[in-house]
Structures are given as structure tokens and as C-alpha cells.
Automatic annotation (TrEMBL):
Organism: Limimaricola variabilis
Keyword set, alphabetical order: Isomerase, Manganese, Metal-binding
Domain annotation Xylose isomerase-like TIM barrel: ranges: 93-287
Domain of life where this protein originates: Bacteria
Protein name in the entry: L-rhamnose isomerase/sugar isomerase
InterPro entries in alphabetical order: L-rhamnose_isomerase, L_rhamnose_iso, Xyl_isomerase-like_sf, Xyl_isomerase-like_TIM-brl
EC number(s) from the headed UniProt entry: 5.3.1.-, 5.3.1.14
SUPFAM superfamilies xref list: Xylose isomerase-like (SSF51658)
UniProt-recorded Gene Ontology molecular function terms: L-rhamnose isomerase activity
Signal peptide: none
Organism lineage: Bacteria, Pseudomonadati, Pseudomonadota, Alphaproteobacteria, Rhodobacterales
Length: 423
């Protein structure tokens, strides 16, 4: 995939500079009572899952402009995901989407072994119709008025669990597009009751060591009302279903300016924070690259995660974004790094000082305490963690030097643009 000598040559050019920067940062942190090696060890152990659908070029409902070497199937996708992990050492797992990635478990496991990857949460799809499907999801899936459609959607989710079990996954993520486009179209209470009833049947099929993560989204594809529209409804679902049901927070699935870090703190406090889909946005569910618009918000989310950390607190972390104008591999590498950066910055927060300022109502110093951590350039920590793991100091530079994209473009025929983005 990526020749070892390419990474080594790329790192040789940057090694001395990195060590000087790392030592300087280490001295600075030492004066603040922080052990840089401890932070680096935590960053090195922090993995972010890559979505299989993220390595293909995304799009909007207007158009899609594919790049060269688009993955043709799940095995090409795993190759690309393997490259991302090889160069960043930050993305050890892939999240599959069924039926897009459906394949024989033995073949998936063999490819995972070859690419050095494992499998994260399984994702079901009842928001679009598949070829040969008996009943349509046009008017909903788990909350559909027709019990036969609901049964079909439940069966699909159970099949996702079955495949996931065979490949070592431990969670099922469910997002439905169910909702309504007109006032009066759906009866809110009855529709939600139908959803809960169907979700209970999925939960009943969940293995003991699995979690069911439900993902809320404010709007789209339903534009008047959405069945699982916000964290409040999501919390109700997780509470109704049981202990192994938790909420998944996709950063893009909220109204603009919503205080997501506070939602994170609330869900964490009550044991219902199951995981994340990281991305960034300016206006809505933009699915822009993580940290590209508001890195401070990402940091504030991680500040709450570090604050809530303790025994049994194990939210899952995955990227979920659409790469419309960049090479998806490059975007995913940069985004995984941005997640690690926010985590490292959050680890630098002086929590004792912050608690003191909070108790003393010193708003200015409390916020300055956060800003001090956020302003610290932790890049040498991230880069050193990569170097020590045999990955690249500069993943994008090494990727471009490798010629991987041009190589796979020869093997993978160009695909037509078409329409249809990624949700
Ligand atoms: Mn998502």
C-alpha cells in the first residue's frame, strides 16, 4: 500500500525539527506541571474510526464530482482506510455501512488482517431503498404506518448485527430518516410509539456485549418533522430501551449555535453518551472536515469528555463527513489528527485551577484557563506519537510522495459523477 521507505524518507527530512519542537514544548509543559510523555501516551492510545463511505468522494443533492481512483467496493475502501491508518496510526478501525459494504465475513476479516484494521460500529440503512427490496421506505422505516415495513426494517438491523458479530464489531448505530414533510402528515405520538416498538425488537436481538447507538438529526430528509430530531428524543429512546442503548452525537445534526458541549456533558452525566460522529459545519449538516470551521468547539467537546472520563466511560469516536472537493484520504487523515489535537489540548486543561475559578465565580480566569490549553500548539506531541508508531510525521506529505492515488487510479476505472450525497 504505502512503502515503508517512503514514510522513512519523509520522516528523515522532518525528524530533527520535530525533536527540537517536542523538547521545547516538553520544557514549557514541565513548567506548567504537565508531563509531555504522559500526554503523548494518551494520544497514541486514542483511536478514531473511519467510515467506509468516507473514502469515496461525497457530494450534495445537486451533484457529485468523483476524483481519480474511487473505491469500487468495500475491499478498495478497506485498502484506502488502511493507508490512512498506516500514515497516521490514528484510525485503527473502520465502520461499515450495510448494505453498501455487504460481503462474506471471512473475506472482510482477511482484508482487515491484510490492512491492519479492525471493525467499529455497524451502520444500518433504512433511509433508502435497495435493489430487490420488497417494501419501500419512502414513508419511513422503523416508524412506518405499515407493520410489514417496520418488520422489514427490524430484520435488516438484526442482519447487520449478525454480520457485525462475525467480524468483531461491538455496536450497531441506527439513524433513520423517518419524519414528515407536511404539518398533519404524521401523528407525532403514534409515529414515535411505532419507532420505539420497532427499536425494542432490535434491542432484543442485541448481543450481551454490544451497544445500540441511536443517532439524532434535526432535519433532512424529512423537512417538517423528524422522529429522532434531537438529544432529548434520543435520550428518551436510550432510556426506554435499556442500559445498552446510548445516544450518538453527530456534531452536524444540531441547529446552528446549539451548545453541543453541554449536551455532551448532560448525556455523559447520565451514562447515555454512546459515541460521536465528528465533522464540522457552518450552516447546517454540512459534513465539512472536522475542525475546519470551529476547532474551538471541538476542543470544548473534548474538554467535557476529559472531564467525564472515568471507569465505564467509553464513548465511541468516528468521523462522519463528506469530502466533496478534496482527496478523501487526505481529508480523513487531517480530520483524525484534528480529533487527536482537540483531545491533547483538553488534556492540558488545569482542572484543579478551573474548578477553583468555577467555585469562586471568577469567569474571566475560568475561561482563560480553557484558552490557555486551547492555544497550546500540541502538534509536536501528535507528530511524535505518529513517528514512534512508525507512521508519518507529515501524513499528507508522505501520502503525496507515495503516488498511491495515481496507482489506484490505474486499477480502478473512473466512475460517473451522478447525483446524491452522503447523509
Ligand atoms: Mn452521522
Amino acid at each position: 500500500m504505502i512503502d515503508k521507505t517512503i514514510i522513512e524518507a519523509s520522516n528523515d527530512d522532518r525528524d530533527a525539527g520535530l525533536r527540537a519542537d517536542y523538547d521545547a514544548l516538553g520544557e514549557q509543559l514541565d513548567r506548567r506541571g504537565i508531563d509531555i510523555a504522559a500526554i503523548k501516551a494518551k494520544v497514541a492510545g486514542f483511536g478514531i474510526a473511519v467510515p467506509s463511505w468516507g473514502v469515496g468522494t461525497g457530494g450534495t443533492r445537486f451533484a457529485r464530482f468523483p476524483g481519480p481512483g474511487e473505491p469500487r467496493h468495500v475491499f478498495d475502501k478497506l485498502d484506502d482506510c488502511g493507508v490512512i491508518h498506516r500514515l497516521t496510526a490514528a484510525t485503527p478501525r473502520v465502520s461499515l455501512h450495510i448494505p453498501w459494504d455487504d460481503a462474506a465475513p471471512a473475506d472482510l476479516l482477511a482484508k482487515a488482517e491484510e490492512t491492519g484494521l479492525g471493525f467499529d460500529a455497524m451502520n444500518s440503512n433504512t433511509f433508502s431503498d435497495q435493489p430487490g427490496q420488497a417494501l419501500s421506505y419512502k414513508f419511513g422505516s422503523l416508524s412506518h404506518t405499515d407493520p410489514a415495513v417496520r418488520a422489514q426494517a427490524v430484520e435488516h438491523n438484526l442482519a447487520c448485527i449478525e454480520l457485525g458479530q462475525a467480524i468483531g464489531s461491538k455496536a450497531l448505530t441506527v439513524w433513520v430518516g423517518d419524519g414528515s414533510n407536511f404539518p398533519g402528515q404524521a401523528h407525532f405520538a403514534r409515529q414515535f410509539d411505532r419507532y420505539l416498538d420497532a427499536a425494542r425488537r432490535i434491542y432484543a436481538g442485541l448481543p450481551e456485549d454490544w451497544r445500540l447507538l441511536t443517532e439524532h438529526k434535526m432535519y433532512e430528509p424529512a423537512f417538517y418533522s423528524t422522529v429522532v430530531q434531537d438529544w432529548g428524543t434520543n435520550y428518551l429512546i436510550a432510556t426506554e430501551l435499556g442500559e445498552r442503548a446510548q445516544c450518538l452525537v453527530d456534531l452536524g445534526h444540531h441547529a446552528p449555535n446549539v451548545n453541543i458541549e453541554m449536551i455532551v456533558a448532560r448525556l455523559a452525566r447520565f451514562g447515555k453518551l454512546g459515541g460521536f460522529h465528528f465533522n464540522d459545519s457552518k450552516y447546517g449538516d454540512d459534513d465539512l472536515d472536522t475542525g475546519s470551521i470551529d476547532p474551538y468547539r471541538l476542543f470544548l467537546v473534548f474538554n467535557e469528555l476529559v472531564e467525564a472520563d472515568g471507569p465505564g466511560f467509553e464513548p465511541m469516536h468516528m468521523l462522519d463527513q463528506s469530502h466533496n472537493v478534496t482527496d478523501p484520504i487526505e481529508s480523513l487523515m487531517v480530520s483524525a489528527t484534528e480529533v487527536q489535537r482537540a483531545y491533547a489540548q483538553a488534556l492540558l486543561v488545569d482542572r484543579a485551577a478551573l474548578a477553583g475559578f468555577q467555585e469562586g465565580n471568577d469567569a474571566l480566569m475560568a475561561t482563560a484557563t480553557l484558552k490557555r490549553a486551547f492555544r497550546t500548539d500540541v502538534e509536536p506531541i501528535l507528530a511524535m506519537a505518529r513517528l514512534e508508531a512508525g507512521a508519518a510525521i507529515d501524513p499528507v506529505a508522505a501520502f503525496r510522495a507515495s503516488g498511491y492515488r495515481a496507482r489506484v487510479a490505474e486499477a480502478r476505472p473512473a466512475v460517473a459523477g451522478g447525483s446524491g450525497g452522503i447523509v
